[in-house]
Amino acid sequence: MLVVHVAEELVRAVPILFGLLIAGRHSGGALWGLAAAGLLVLHGILRWVTTTYRITPEQVQVRRGTVRRNVLTVPRDRVRTVDVTAHALHRVLGLARLTIGTGRSDRRDPGLRLDALPAPDAARLRDELLHRRGVAAGGAAVAVGADPVTGPGDELARLRPRWIAYGPFTLSGVVTVAVLAGFGSRVISEANIDPQRFGALRSLADAIGSSPLPVVIVLALVATLALVALASTVGYALAFWQFRLTRTDGGTLHVTRGLITTRATTIEERRLRGVELSEPLGLRAVGGARCIAIATGLRVGRGAERGGSLLLPPAPRAEAERVVTAVLGSEEPLRVALISHGPVARRRRFTRALAGAALPIAVLALLWAAAGVSGWAPRGALALLPLAALLAADRARSLGHALTGGLLVSRRGSLVRRRAMLASDGIVGWTLRRSPFQRRGGLATLVATTAAGRQRYELQDVELTEALRVIEAATPALLTPFLVR
Q1: For residue range 365-386, what is the model confidence (pLDDT) as tens digits?
Q2: Could you tell me the residue ranges of all domains in the chain?
Q3: Which terminus has fewer CB within 10 Å in the chain: N or C?
Q4: Which residue, among 77, 82, 5, has the nearest Cα to 41 in the 3D structure?
Q5: What is the DSSP letter of 250?
Q6: 399-485: CATH, from 2.40.160, 3.30.1300, 2.60.40, 2.30.29
Q7: DSSP E strands: which ranges in 176-271?
């Protein structure tokens, strides 16, 4: 545990330590860097010394802190999900990190975390906290590799190697490439490295300098897309290798995945409020989709992968639909005909998209007329208009909703098209929002509020009478006292 805590502190501080060493190399920067590293090591040791936990039949308690003591107590009946994660250092040392979900799914809730537990203890606690089985006789820990929570059950999905081909179309590597590029440029600047001292880089710079600007832009875009595709593919393999989704006899969904960092998430089905079928634009273009659980205790706001709510990584759409059907027990939510939101909602999509595209064109035209900016900029920006029209048409085509089998089905979006299938008994309230333009068109945005998933699922630009009908049909006793016939 000391190794894990200290190593994590040092890894998080690598950019700061590197900056101290580079920026202050002529003024004792190495000493400052060593002093900072020593303080981080001391902080990691204090974290281990001052952290204790206790699990009773009624509560889970974690106490930590040196100067400021913090005691976090969670009733056992508030435990919703249990997530067991082990990164490379954990696995080498035979440890794991146990994260307990308590029903909150917003960004501010990190969950109750027990870091660097022995792997058998983590498996035993997961089993115990989910009320599936008590501690083994005599308090013995479950053997390494045992999976008492899953037990016998049905396998719903398993990663196929060919699914890795969907990795480049997720564009998840954009952030990775941006961070690496920023960090690399900072290192070159701080170290006073001249790239033109290297022959290959000098030749590349000369070739770029002698090429027309449009060619340089196209080549830069192609190179960036290639790097993003490579980073996305590598990230897909690292995150979802050995992915497996199973349903146990005890009424839980169990997800395991990961190559270097392994992760096991257990979701009680009685906490499940629905499923979301997500289709980002690039993934949709190649016939792919992914599945996300709508469940209490899972932090969708941090990303489905990080929050543990992912039920299926990017995969063929047919496979995603099969998983949705298996989890919900019916394919009706996927096959039901959705009610269109009408011509007024469609017109609003085109108005907003074309207005958004016309604004930069107008700004560039004014700069061209007043400040002498190159004329190709406003002319090139005219390409935004047909792109905006295509985006608006796709967004209008995506809008729809339905009620079937006790589920509210809503679909919207273009860059990321989402079809949310939310159980009506999981809806705890409604928000009816109307802007001046919506009131003029007789429309409203209906928001179903729930304690699970994203916590709000919208029906955008639906007719007001239809919004009231949906509320009455989904939650009959909720709105009736406030309606005037």
Answers
A1: 887 777 766 667 677 778 888 9
A2: 162-240, 342-395, 399-485
A3: C
A4: 5
A5: T
A6: 2.30.29
A7: 244-248, 252-257, 262-268
